[in-house]
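To fix ideas, we quote verbatim one protein's residues and fold tokens.
>
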Amino acid sequence: MPNIIDRVTNFISQQAMPPPGSTVVLALSGGLDSVALLLILQELKYKLTIAHCNFGLRDEALEDEAWVRALARQHGIPLYVRRFTAADFAHYAGEGTQQAARKLRYAFFEEVMAAQSIAFCATAHHADDQLETQVMSFFRGSGRELLHSIPAVRGAYFRPLLPIRKHELQDWLQARGQDWRHDRSNDKDAYQRNLVRNQLLPLLEQLQPNFREHFAAQAERHAAQMTLLDQTMEAMLPAVVVIEGNESKLDWEACMGQWGATQAMVFVEWWLDRQGFWAGQITELMKLLQSATGARMQFGRQEVLRDRQWLILRQISDAPSMEVMTLNFDLEQIWQWDYAGESLQSRPVPKPKQFDGALGIESHWLDPQKLILPLRIRPWQKGDRYQPLGLRGTKLISDILIDQKRNQWEKDQAWVIEDAEGIILLSGYRIAQRVALTTESSQCIQITRLNATRSASQGH
């Protein structure tokens, strides 16, 4: 059998990975796998920058970090270290420690690549990792995860050691007198992957000595099938998915019309997988397709909403909470307020010659003499109603929001401005008829919802 260096070189060429001599980031934990990858990539003349994650989850974490720092100095390789805190993990609350660590790890790698203008990152996944992933996904059994494999190349990330067994890497390092850090938590069966590695795989080898080869062959076929599936699904995205701001909206009815129920379900599972949800989460999210409008689920910082024919995904923001806020101001000056992540401005303007038409939903003319100060801004409430400009009578705000087909998130974020007589404005809609300009109006102010949020200010 060719030696490890030759096998890795051939694999790099076959998989169209960044060729020897390229500049790459190396994900280095200090364990056997990543240390072997460092030495192999050095022999192949790659120009390396090391990225090390200290999650602080084990007593030896600081010792591992110090060891990696020493190794980087020994080889003269630039090093980036990130120490993660409980606050970092809280950002992914509800996703499990390992899943949160994975997301934090890859976000850090992205930062290092951006900081150094490096296009690629090498990780040390090997053949044993591949087999563990295949077995775990087989037993988990969900959609495209049925026999999920670690891809050799995915975006900026490449894995040159996938054809190499862990014991081969260990023998290779020992022959060179190179040590490594041992993560003792891998010896315990507390995590599912450890249980598979330490208990299940040895048992499967007893039952079928060639099962590794069988799984490897199936994984290769599955990887080719997934590549074809990705290419096919990507081409279908524009027909059924709409991107609006921080929301991705999948049209379930359009999916059904395109492919029918069974195939549409496959597409939705694929789409959710691409959004970063894992198999168990996808199984739960698929239940939204049978739910009524307004049903929603949240996993970590991602939330999915069923709204009529749409399945809408958004990243949960840290927008300020919506409370009642009094707007004390001088109608003859320019004033500005921040509210719920938005910025509003009031300014006196000359009365326009024609004012029978509205400026739009983001900017409005008002007659200041019809206002009874102070104004208040607050979230809308059930039972709120007012007479919008151009309507003969009053209308419930809940009905207006339904007529506008706002989804549940948009309804949650809707606010009103009111004076002592009642509501004068609904966000994203018209002002009240009673404060609109008329031929008798002698003054005019313009209230505008600005795109950018700025600090509250007063100007002349």
The chain has a mean pLDDT of 87. The two ends are 81 Å apart (CA to CA). The longest helix spans residues 211-240.
